[in-house]
Amino acid sequence: MSGTLYLIPVPLGPGQPADALHPNILATIRPLTHFVVEQAKSARAFLKAAGTDHPLQELALEELNEHTRDADIEHLLAPLRTGHDVGLLSEAGCPAVADPGANLVALAQHEGIRVVPLVGPSSLLLALMASGLNGQRFAFHGYLPAKEAERRKALSDLESESRKRQQTQLFIETPYRNRALFDAILQICQPNTRLCVATDLTLPGESVRTRRIAEWKKQTPPDFERRPTVFLLLA
Asked: What is the value of pTM for the model shown?
């Protein structure tokens, strides 16, 4: 009988896991001995803070990140096949959402292995909740193209799709490129399109502001340099 793959949420920034996660989640984590993680070092720090029934050096941590080849993912299911429960960790937030862990979940589903998502912080849903934009119809697009011409086209297409479907469009950027993306949005989108900029969600410096493009152009840009940010727009 195979084990269970638990999808374990991680706080969105510095702080104690107990401040962001329900006690039942921490109780699920503690007995586990096998984990699939993005980075072993940060995962050990999280597990130490969350609490574990086993010495850290006895835990089996396998890495799954953007450098992992598709051919190397299948062996990560080995503990599950032999009856061990496994915890899948992202670096922050919920695993398998804009996260390489999705590939492992897909394989587990294919083999009929039980997959259990655990409740925790999701920057995307928190941003949508606080934006005041359409929460009935929305789509997440991950990272937009970094090249200027491709990014401009992507933003134009997203705005057109939003107008057509009345659909909130969500996307993210590498934090050091937040300003470049913000400036591109102001240049390309129509004055009446609403843009929400949600930064440092659940952290002390949290900021969620929704304005029309015309209003954003009259204001000082948000303080989001090198800070995790979710962008949402609704035409």
From this structure: 0.90
